Amino acid sequence: MEDAIEVNELVKTYPGDVRALDGLSFSAEEGTVFGLLGPNGAGKSTAVRIVTTLARPDSGAARVAGHDVLADPAGVRSAIGVVGQRAGADREATARENLRLSGRLHGMRGLESRIDELLARFGLEDAADRIVRGFSGGMERRLDIALALTHRPRVLFLDEPTTGLDPEVRADMWQEIERLGRDEGMTVLLTTHYLEEADRLAAQLAIVDRGRVVASGSPDELKRELSGDAVQVELERPNLNGAGAAVERIDGIREVSVDGRTLRARAADGARAVPAVLAALEVHDVEVASVTVARPSLDDVYLRYAGRSFGAAEASAERTEVTR
Amino acid sequence: MTALRHTGYMTATHLRQLWRQPWWIAVTLVQPVIWLLLFGSLFEVVADIPGFGSDSYIDYLAPGIVVMTAFFSAGWSGMPVIEDLDRGVTDRLLVSPASRGALLAGRVAQNSVTIAIQSLIIVGISLLAGATFPGGLVGVAALVGVAVLLGACFGTLSIGFALSARKEETLIATLTFLQLPLSFISSTFMASSLMPDWMDTAADFNPLEWAVEAARAAALGDGGWDVVLTRCGLLAGFLALCAWFALRALERYQRSL
Asked: Helix A95-105 vs helix A137-149: angle between axes, to the nearest 10 degrees?
């Protein structure tokens, strides 16, 4: 299938020798949700600004919906919808007026019925003719997305769409984004620094660190590359008589550690390892309170490819922000 | 064609906002009305000075106040531009097919409507204060036209400053720095024949002075149409320069992203 977004070796530096992008490359297949995952300051927003024709790279190339962002920015602009990190609606106008302006600038026909359709879809019918200034954060965000969809773009960019939203609104937003990818065959590029958001929404992911893609694939593929599942056993009593050693002897079980009442281990197939683990513990008269098997998280993936934990990367980005 | 249509859309958007907050026009009228009434009576006797060249000070002052109001009110055009930059509105429009020029021209066009309304209100108050506008309706129409043209120049310039500075404090400082000298190195309040020579010379390079001379010639209707035309020509040239500067500032903003 054709790639809706192709990004090739983008480099972008800012005054003060800040290298925001350092040879960033990725491609997103048409009709999928593609996630750019990375901590704040990794270069995700810079990449979005370049592929949406807002900013120019120092070097490198990018094509969106078949148009080159540098040679044919007008072609790109008519094919894309963009939801930026900041709300982009005119706060002194009503929701309907905002949508109308957006549609007119795209030279749309049959605009009024499209506006009604979008207002209904995003639950803004009652607020349609109210001034945006009085909207709640969630309503404003929904209007932002409606604005980006007015002209039925082929590619939709969502730059940190749920940052700053409360959990309930975030859950609604997730459902909406899932629907866009599934029902409308739209290509969606989503940037996020929430691991669970990328995990849940993106079919394909690129993990970005310091302006480069350090790993890419589907969330499952990325996690599968980490060896095995995490098996965690809660014991009834703090371990006394070498339960850990017993578990370690089981075939296919590695990295066993015991910490008070918690026993952790890795297994290639966690679910299959559980009966053997329980049997070994029973032999040693260790009573078990609960067992959980977890697939590796994207946090583990990030740690492996970026060489630092997500939290540490975020903290370092904040420090750079302050010194800049 | 697209650029014109987009300018129309943007102008309508901004005008609707003005329509919802019409008191804004009243606020910007406080200062000129004070000048008109206070200076009008304070300096009434100035017209008696030999060489002043006009018999009635209020007739002399009124067109100057109209132009001055346009000058000050246009100066604030950049403020909402900074708000749009901060809020992400500008970025959203820049990634849409909206014509770049229309983003600037829409604001300037809205400002022109504001200035036309303000100018007519000041003309009305001046009439109540005793001004006669000997140039008649044609003169008043030309006066309003000159005010709008000057407003377009400084409105565009202010938008350019806003896109360059991107901070409200910097814009306010720049405007304040420009506004006072430009208003007093002009014949708004005092005939240039009575100014010190250096000031008279400096005033020749002041766009505000070009507008004041054109406005007064039109309003007094004493046959100075060549003055009106030449000064408007100068202002049109200045407007082109301001537009070039503002478009460059928009480009520079985009390059900083």
From this structure: 20
From A190, A223, A256, the end of a domain falls on A223
- Taking the alpha carbons at both ends of chain A, their separation in whole angstroms is 42
Q: How many angstroms separate the CA atoms of A187 and A213, rounded?
A: 20
Whole-angstrom distance, CA of residue B235 vs CA of residue B229:
10
* Residue A60, pLDDT score: 96
Question: Considering chain B, what percentage of its residues have pLDDT values greater than 70?
Answer: 100
The answer on A247 and A159 residing in a single domain is: no
Query: Which domain range does residue A267 map to?
Result: 227-294
- Single pTM value for the model: 0.83
The pLDDT of residue B55 is 76
Calpha distance B83→B166 (Å, rounded): 9
A97 and B CB contact within 8 Å = yes
String of DSSP letters for A125-192: TTTTTSBGGG--HHHHHHHHHHHHHTT--SEEEEESTTTT--HHHHHHHHHHHHHHHHHH--EEEEEE
CB-CB contact of B98 with A102 (8 Å) = no
Segment A228-275, tens digit of pLDDT: 788 888 888 876 667 777 788 887 787 787 877 888 888 888 888 888
Give A71-74's long-range contacts (Cβ < 8 A, gap of 24+).
A74/B97
With beta carbons under 8 A apart, name residues in chain A contacting B9: 101, 104-105
**SS3 assignment, position A216:** strand
Please judge whether A54 and B96 are an interchain contact, meaning their C-beta atoms are less than 8 angstroms apart. Answer: no
A122 shares its domain with A243: no
Per the CB < 8 A criterion, the answer to whether B248 and B231 are in contact is no
Q: How far apart are CA B33 and CA B52, in angstroms?
A: 23
Give Rg (Cα) of chain A: 24
Position A118 in a domain: yes
Is pLDDT at A322 greater than 70 in this prediction? no
Are A90 and B13 an interchain contact pair (Cβ–Cβ within 8 Å)?
yes
What is the ipTM for the molecules in this complex?
A: 0.88
The pLDDT of B5-34, averaged and rounded, is 90
Q: Which residues lie across from A67 on neighbouring strands?
A: A64
How far apart are alpha carbons A307 and A314 in whole angstroms? 13
Q: Which site among A90, A91, A99, A106 would you substitute to test the B interface, given the most B Cβ atoms closer than 10 Å to its Cβ?
A: A90
Lowest mean pLDDT: which of A16-25, A236-245, B21-30?
A: A236-245
